[in-house]
Amino acid sequence: MKLAAIDIGSNAARLQISTVLHNDNLVSFKRVEYVRFPLRLGHDVFNFGALTPESEARTTKLMQAYKLLMELHEVEGYMACATSAMRESSNGQEIAKRIEASTGIKIHIIDGRKEAELINDVVVHALDDRQYLHIDVGGGSTELNVYVNRQKINSKSFKIGSVRLLEGKETKGAWRKIEDWVEENVDSSQEITAVGTGGNISKLFNLASKVSESETTRTEIERIRNYIAGFSQEDRINKLRLNADRADVIVPAADIYISVMKWAGADKIIVPDLGLKDGIIQQVYAQVCKRK
């Protein structure tokens, strides 16, 4: 059985198709197709408050392409979720309905709490009984979650993200709000490890020296951030071989991860290869099982 997840973010839209694997009583998901396209919807919304006709046309074309890929893979179930850009757009719901009428793909515009819940459902499997601060930085928002003994103690979504910072459109006092929330919700008497999800931390982690297969240090993330910042946008693309839509947002994203880690007193960060799309796949699987 194959299932699919579509994640329409502020920077890019992703399609992941996974095969469901059964090993005795254990169920796992193997990625068989992954496509990412830089729609950059956040540029419209954070500057003008609405999606432009051009962005609507590009999103419609992309959903048509994703639908064809899902048909070729004979996907049995899928879900498409849109996050901060479409949920803050004054015409987001209207455009989602038109895309559904045109392509047959229903787009669920989810709030920050639901977004965090879907990510948490898969991230929790990478944790043990220690204290963790999960940091998920998207194009338009940052989700923070505190875990102890694999139980989520508290969570909060903030209107600050890589594209929003790039455009200079972060909400007033956003940095201070994050710092205050971390101070109130992290137990400073206990050691804490950060858990990072999102495309930018995955790229930073790939470039960094590792403590282990899935762990590095805040100092190393800072070193890579400063290294990348020393290159022009053109050189980031040509010399560092970063995608154009990654090259401009990776430094603002790194600033969020580093700042949150400093405020929390976290010296190490785990970067599992997981994200919203994986949480969507897991939910689709549960829905398909209910139907059978």
Summarize the structure in words.
By secondary structure, this protein is of the alpha/beta class. The chain has 2 domains: 127 residues, Nucleotidyltransferase, domain 5; 143 residues, Nucleotidyltransferase, domain 5, CATH 3.30.420. The protein is 47% helix and 25% strand. It has 13 helices and 11 strands. Helix 5 packs across helix 13 and helix 9 packs antiparallel against helix 12. The protein starts with a strand and ends with a helix. The mean pLDDT is 93.
- The coarse overall form would be globular
Share in β-strands: 25-35%
- Provide the helix percentage: 40-55%
How many structural domains in the coordinates?
Answer: 2
Give the H and E element order: EEEHHEHHEHEEEHHEHEHHHHEH
Q: Total strand count, please?
A: 11
Structural class: alpha/beta
Low-pLDDT regions: none
The CATH class assignment of the largest domain is Alpha Beta
Question: What is the strand arrangement across the widest sheet?
Answer: 8-7-6-9-11-10
Radius of gyration using CA atoms only: 19 Å
Instruction: Please describe the biggest sheet, giving its number of strands, its sense, and whether it closes into a barrel.
Output: 6 strands, mixed
Summed over residues and divided by their number, the pLDDT gives a mean of: 93
Name the CATH superfamily assignment of the largest domain: Exopolyphosphatase. Domain 2
CATH architecture of the largest domain: 2-Layer Sandwich
CATH level-3 fold name of the largest domain: Nucleotidyltransferase, domain 5
Pfam family, one: Ppx-GppA
Protein name: Ppx/GppA phosphatase
Domain Ppx/GppA phosphatase N-terminal: 29-282
GO molecular function: pyrophosphatase activity
